[in-house]
Amino acid sequence: MKPKHHVEVSSTVLPPTTALPPSGVDPIAIEGFDHIEIYTDSAKQSSYFLSHAFGFNPVAYRGPETGWHDSASIILKQGDVLIMLTCPLKPDSPIARQIAKHGFAARDVAFRVTNAQWCFQEAVRRGATAAAPPTEWKDANGTIIHASIKTYGDTIHSFVERSKYNGPFWPGFAPYSKVFPGEPVVPEVGLSAIDHVVGNVELGGMNEWVAFYEKVLGFSQLKHFSDKEISTEYSALMSKVMNGGGGKIKLPINEPAEGKRKSQIEEFLEYNGGPGVQHIALETKDIIATIAALRERGVRFLFVPKTYYEEAPTRIGTIDEDLSLIQKLGILVDRDEDGYLLQIFTKNLEDRPTLFLEIIQRHGSRGFGVGNFKALFEAIERDQAERGNL
Questions:
Q1: For residue range 156-205, what is the model confidence (pLDDT) as tens digits?
Q2: What's the CA gap between 10 and 196, in Å, rounded?
Q3: Between 388 and 346, where is the model more confident?
Q4: Residues 6+ apart with CB under 8 A from 388
Q5: Does 108 fall in a domain?
Q6: What whole-number distance in Å separates Cα of residue 353 and Cα of residue 330?
Q7: What's the rounded Cα separation, in Å, for the pair 273 and 255?
Q8: 3-class SS at 114?
Q9: What is the helix (H) or strand (E) element at residue 111, kind and residue range?
Q10: Is there a domain that residue 94 lies in?
């Protein structure tokens, strides 16, 4: 007997395409972020947390109720941000093993592309390792073509071609409200897009992955931060920012540097079981309203001392926002040659000191808050000290 909300879906692995992109067209034409998939012990519980704390609403579902029996997935949406929460339904599944190793962690940083087959074939030709071959997924709402490659740790990048699909998210998914009717819509908090995604890798791994993004995906290096710029009395790290998709994709890559004590990157690598996504930065157009709403819902952020704001007017100059409100909400501010930005970082989203979120608003600045690095690192070190890991 089929489940009440069964969705007929088919998948076909596509043979290598011999069709080539037109002259002058980049075969790896990335249009932007598509979604981020997070592996979790319970999609329902994680969905409840991200909905009620961060204003995401579930829009699509795939699981036993739709005829999918290996895993359950819930799609959360706010603005242009799509988060896919996936949990295993069987204790010996590959997803369960990933969760045992990494905990609540980002598995897939997926890119929306013009042609998934071209992207995949060209990436593999340039040296990428395949994670999943180009596959056509189809249901009554149309077709999506998907393929993926491996990157640092157990993280993958998917290529998603969805121009011929009009369903709730992906073939095989049903509208969430249809499967679970009656759940209230949670007020959003103004999160509008994925700004950047930061990866942590082991000592010596940063330049390897910089070369990977340059060679395989055609990215360029946007910024380079040395251990002298990103350091405190006790620890330091190095970071390079990779830029692709016509500037729509920004992927900073961090590695630890030598210090007196264990750095935040070393702590992450230990508890994550190796390299992985450290944090996801989400954009807002009104950070004061967004953070006020998040704090009212009980979201916990890293603490910024009062001394940071005493020198802020001299360092950042005039800004549109009320500095007293910025200080009250614990928001960091930085300025560069293009403008300024406001940013704030949540505490870890689970018990492991691994994945967290950044909320960012840009006023012209294309940077990453280098002037805030010292304050941020000292805040993280205070949390490390509380855990006994500094």
A1: 999 999 999 999 999 999 999 999 999 999 999 999 999 999 999 999 99
A2: 33
A3: 346
A4: none
A5: yes
A6: 21
A7: 15
A8: coil
A9: strand 105-113
A10: yes
Which helix (H) or strand (E) segment is 387 a member of?
helix 373-387
The answer to the question of residue 2 being in a domain is no
Secondary structure percentages of the chain, helix, strand, coil, to 5: 25, 35, 35
Q: Are residues 142 and 199 in the same domain?
A: no
Neighbours of 271 (CB within 10 A): 18
Residues 207, 120, 251, 366: is their CA dihedral positive or negative? positive
d(CA 261, CA 146): 43
**CB count in 10 Å sphere of residue 28:** 23
Residue 172 corresponds to which tokens in the numbers above?
A: 């095989």
Q: What is the pLDDT of residues 88-104, one digit of tens each?
A: 999 999 999 999 999 99
Query: Helix/strand/coil (H, E, C) string of 162-219?
Result: CCCECCCCCCCCEEHHHHCCCCCCCCCCCEEEEEEEEEECCCCCHHHHHHHHHHHHCC
What residue has token string 């614990």? 330
Rg (CA), the chain: 21
Q: What is the pLDDT of residue 389?
A: 65
Q: What is the per-residue pLDDT for 179?
A: 96
In order of 20, 253, 292, 363, the CA distances from 347 in angstroms are 46, 20, 16, 25
The closest alpha carbon to 374, from 257, 236, 197, belongs to: 236
**CATH number of the domain within which 208 lies:** 3.10.180.10
Supply the range of the domain harboring residue 156. 10-179
Could you give the CA distance from residue 16 to residue 120 in angstroms, rounded to a whole number?
A: 10
In a domain, 184, yes or no: no
Backbone torsion region of residue 270, taken as left when φ is above 0, otherwise alpha when ψ lies between -120 and 50, otherwise beta: alpha
Arithmetic mean of pLDDT, 137-155: 98
DSSP H/E element including 35: strand 30-39
Q: Which element (helix H / strand E) includes 257?
A: strand 249-257
User: Minimal CA–CA distance to 346: which of 334, 332, 333?
Assistant: 332
> What's residue 25's pLDDT?
85
Q: pLDDT tier at 231 (50, 70, 90 boundaries)?
A: low
Residues 329 and 356 in one domain: yes
Cβ(278)–Cβ(198) below 8 Å: yes
Using the predicted structure, report yes or no on whether residue 1 has a pLDDT greater than 80: no
Q: Give the pLDDT band (50/70/90) at residue 234.
A: low
